[in-house]
Amino acid sequence: MNNRISTGMMFNQSVSLMLAKQAKLNHLENQIATGSKIVSAKDDPVSAGAAVGLDRVVAGLEQLGKNANNVQNRLGMQENALAQVNDLMSRAVELSIQANSPVPKSSDLKAIVSELKTIQQSLLSLANSKDGSGRYLFGGNNDADAPFLLTGGSVSYTGDQSQRQVEVAPGQLVSDALPGSDIFMRIRTGDGTVDASASAGNTGSGLLTSVSRDGTGAWAGGSLTVHFTDAGEGAYEVLDAGGAVVGTGTHAAGEDIVVAGVRLRIEGKPAAGDAFNVGDAETRDIFSTLDKLVSALETDPSTDSDRAALQNTLQSSIRDITRASENMIDARAKGGAQLAAIDSAASARESTAVTVKSTLSTMRDLDYADAIGQYKLESAALQAAQTIFSQMQSMSLFNMIR
């Protein structure tokens, strides 16, 4: 096969060479301008595909960072709200102790009642706290509406019992704010396991000041009644739920009564027939506890037995409010643990992002020294091609046959 050599062929070859060099220069200019050696997928299909996957990883880490910021904000607001609640609980205990003084004045009691009612209102407001986006902190997943409602003088919880789990690092979840039912509603009375109270019909001055387990682990639950049979000698008997006598003894004011794994301290002098009931600790919301305290303080005791009943109610309220304060502290500790987990997750995200971005840099980032060297080389080649083409324009095969 013979190839014809013509002027047109030489012109086409020269033009093709210049166009190729210009295309290469344009590509190098794009690389230098963007700082990336992969301008389009055809430059390195394998690396381009891997880089897209790594870009998704980086975007996912950024979204996890946003998740962490949102839940950190909510947990921080929960901490602030619970700190204020705890301060209110401490103040309620102080007021209860003041009201429990030997001879409280009527004016003092009225002032205490007024402040306790203000504390109730403040508690309800804090229980309905919102985060920065207008969502309620303590409503669980049902956080669009106020979780605590005051109806007919009593507070009810309308949120749910769930707690969100939010991913803040690959494979790492943290818990969002606690549902309000765990913080404000389901609070154990007494010491959290066992509780006791004075019977409503007591006529003596017996005052139940404390109740707890005795540390032996003998408390097995159920109900007991400490029934005083002789006021003079302080004799008592202990009855089980069926009314059977399971123990007897004598009591002196200020001494502990230890029975079936429970320790009771009773001050004053119970009358014959007075009784103190022991049972498993129940759950009560903090709003009801304060209602009970306010209602007791609004009475006007006129007899020794009435005053003893008021003091027993105050002692019971102090125990329950103290228990509620402990519950707030536990809730704050749980929130603090989640905040610490968020800080740990931030370190994990950062180290992962550094690794991924380093890999992306290896795939994409341009070696400027090498690219500039190639650019100069291609520029010289283009100039040479343009010079040859210019010289070819003055040449013709007809010149050879003249």
Automatic annotation (TrEMBL):
Keywords: Bacterial flagellum, Cell projection, Cilium, Flagellum, Secreted. Its main location: other. It is found in: Bacterial flagellum; Secreted. The keyword Magnesium does not apply. Residues 5-142 form the Flagellin N-terminal domain. InterPro entries: Flagell_FlgL, Flagellin, Flagellin_N. The keyword tRNA-binding does not apply. Belongs to the bacterial flagellin family. PANTHER family: FLAGELLAR HOOK-ASSOCIATED PROTEIN 3, FLAGELLIN. This is Flagellar hook-associated protein FlgL. It comes from Stenotrophomonas bentonitica. The gene is flgL.
